[in-house]
Fold this sequence. Notes:
The structure holds two protein chains of two kinds. By secondary structure, chain A is of the alpha+beta class.
Amino acid sequence: MGTIDQLISKVSSKGVEGFAGIWEDEHQFVEAARKTRESGVEGFEAISPFPLHGIDEAMGIPRSFIPWVTFFAGLTGGTFGLWFTWWTSAVNWPINIAGKPMWSLPAFIPIIFELTILFGALSSVGALIYICGLPKVDPPVIDPDLSCHKFGLFVPKTAKGFDQQKLTDLFNQMGALEVKETRF
Amino acid sequence: MIKRRPLVLGSKTYKDITDDICELVETFPPMKFFATLLSANFLFLIFVLAQGAIVFKGMGLMGVNHPVGWGTDIVTFVFWIGIGHAGTLISAVLFLFRQKWRTSIARTAEAMTVFAVMTAGLFPILHTGRPWLAYWLLPYPNQRGPLWVNFRSPLVWDVFAVSTYATVSIVFWYIGMVPDLATIRDRAKNPWRKRIYGALSLGWRGTARNWNHYEMVYMLLAGLSTPLVLSVHSIVSFDFAVATLPGWHTTIFPPYFVAGAIFSGFAMVVTLMTLVRILVPKFKDYVTMDHMEAMNKIIMATGLMVGYAYGSEFFIAWYSGVEYEQYAFLNRAFGPMAWSYWIMVTCNVLIPQVFWFKSMRRNIPVMFVVSIFVNIGMWFERFVITVTSLHRDFLPSNWGMFDFTIFDIGAIVGSFGLFFTLFLLYIRALPAISIAEVKPVLNVGREGGDHGHH
Lengths: 184, 454
């Protein structure tokens, strides 16, 4: 198996088996997610074409931790910039330029600032890509309209509290357009 | 209660939004698109020929000489970098201020930023005269000592500022596009379209957990881009302000440059949006007259700031009591290059005053013409700052003149070809309005809507 094939097989996603319901009304959908969680199901996914108001509370999703990544990455970038400008200008090869001090801190602030921003921004995006499990090659799609105008709940078979009959009843009662067994 | 005006016209559903925006990517472009693209390509060809000749023969083909060592390349660099700033202002600063009207123009404004910075970045590299040695600007371990770059120099700050700005802008633009690329992937019937947009979308799935992190990163990038964009043009202004030349050595430069950048950038957004509304009539429902009016108000406000800076510079030159500083400003307004100064004042201060009238702010031909004048005026502002300060400094024996050559003109005009070629390809290849961001603001200002629950 070639390196490229190995790489592809690593990021391909066959998904897991489970049960899904599909909605067209976002308010019904958020309610359905809340009811699903209240019925004791854990580890299910809510798929929507855009970020939905209230879904985090309904599903009990905590605030993202990524600001911490940004903070420490920015701190690292700034520290690196401080060290690098000092080491190159005052230690490794100090050159007298117009009689300015070797370690001219005020003049190094722009460099330190830009490196803070650069490290912070790239690490935040890196953290997002990592935590979302991206990139994925051909992830299974429950319904192509879930990135357009429909909303879907997906409960993996392995999820805590999975009971297909109970979920069918609950989804239908909450106004689902469609329920089906699928992979995601 | 003050009624909000709808941000999206024509009682659309979520599906209509997806259909309208994806249609551009999914259909074959009409002839008028190709006609526009070919005109842009023609200008781009001029750029390639002009800069190719300059690289091949040398910088002597351009107007730069002693004492005016910074000419068209530097002026045009500052011009394009400034254009880019409005895109970041719309996508990041207006986002932090929760200005919902930004959503339908943010994607295109960010694209403008990316292409403007790409165009701008070429100019200082070509200005070095030996662009194949441009990597010497970076601090890398080398066999000359290692000899490091001079971190006390504003020109090195500029390398870091512009490259960071380009990187963060591209990442911000791309991350914003990922969910929309997934939408195009899910709709694709053509297997190649599915493959290409599937790869570009990184396999985005849109789960609530993913959106939770995604929204946080979007806000963080907006929060990081805001000080970044202010730093970039401040640092560009340091290229001048840190030198001791009369006309350059002033503390007003950073805010003055940033205001000018926003001013010219918004003018370019208005130019592009009027063109988009002509080329893609459907987008009139998304980029409404209210959007255009809001941008025209910003153009007028920043135009007044720039006008204030022109006056303030003159006052401080007089008030400083420094005769060289006083002469530099009198020479700008009444010397041999006074024509460029008065073009600048007319285009940047006088012409935008028509936007005091609401009927003018909401008139497409008027705003198109004004936006072109502002762009001309802002190019000449940088010309006035750079060239008129250099051509007469302290010693009359060191005075000289600057004359444009055909290669200067080719570089300026041709850079628009590069910019518009990239922009036109973007309009048809990538989702030109943020699908996932417009949907949550759909109900703003609608009868019975919940006034933007998001």
